Amino acid sequence: DTEVTQTPKHLVMGMTNKKSLKCEQHMGHRAMYWYKQKAKKPPELMFVYSYEKLSINESVPSRFSPECPNSSLLNLHLHALQPEDSALYLCASSLPQGNEKLFFGSGTQLSVL
Amino acid sequence: QKEVEQNSGPLSVPEGAIASLNCTYSDRVSQSFFWYRQYSGKSPELIMSIYSNGDKEDGRFTAQLNKASQYVSLLIRDSQPSDSATYLCAVTTGGFKTIFGAGTRLFVKA
Q1: Confidence (pLDDT) at B90
Q2: For residues A31 and B87, what is the distance between their CA atoms, to the nearest angstrom?
Q3: Does A55 contact B92 at a Cβ distance shorter than 8 Å?
Q4: Average pLDDT in the A62-90 region?
Q5: Quick check: B100 and A104 CB within 8 A?
Q6: What is the pLDDT of residue B58?
Q7: What is the pLDDT confidence band of residue B30, given thresholds at 50, 70 and 90?
Q8: Do A101 and B103 touch (CB under 8 A)?
Q9: Does A96 sit behind a cis peptide bond, omega within 30 degrees of 0 on the bond before it?
Q10: 3-class secondary structure, A40
Q11: Which residues of A touch B (CB under 8 A)?
């Protein structure tokens, strides 16, 4: 299985809502990532988990809260988002050594109203 | 600041031609180099990785790396309309951070 599965594919939420994005991989990868991508821009790293522990937080606002319940699952909890948070949110996984190629999920297109 | 530079394009080539995409990077200790293809509205997909100086070929794709010049390129032979996409050059310098270039939009005309 070489897929990274993300749900939902599309999400519309109000600024007072709480929602979660989910990501699952069964490639045995022990590094998992959240990226944010705005239109016509490259992906921007948000968080990295290595062996289920938070390894990198790129100074992301606290309205984004990541969680890695086990080696296959990665969640991103969203609360009190702003319209400027509307973007494509990408989950990725890789081998845990660093300097590795990334396998991306199909992404969640998020719109904040 | 570590940077990866690409010409944003669009690069337009006729079907069957060779498309040449270029990338430069600023950090001399960069270790791994990747090309990702991203179709509009879709997620990036790895198409090539290269780790040492020289050429690496995979089907119609050839990646070239020159660490002395801090230069990476991707050649697409026999370009097809289905190759029309944005190509992201990406570099790692150790650890889990991948630095992406802004991407080059390629348009292959039928």
Answers
A1: 97
A2: 24
A3: no
A4: 97
A5: no
A6: 96
A7: confident
A8: no
A9: no
A10: coil
A11: 31, 33, 40-43, 45, 48, 50, 55-56, 88, 90, 94, 98-107, 109
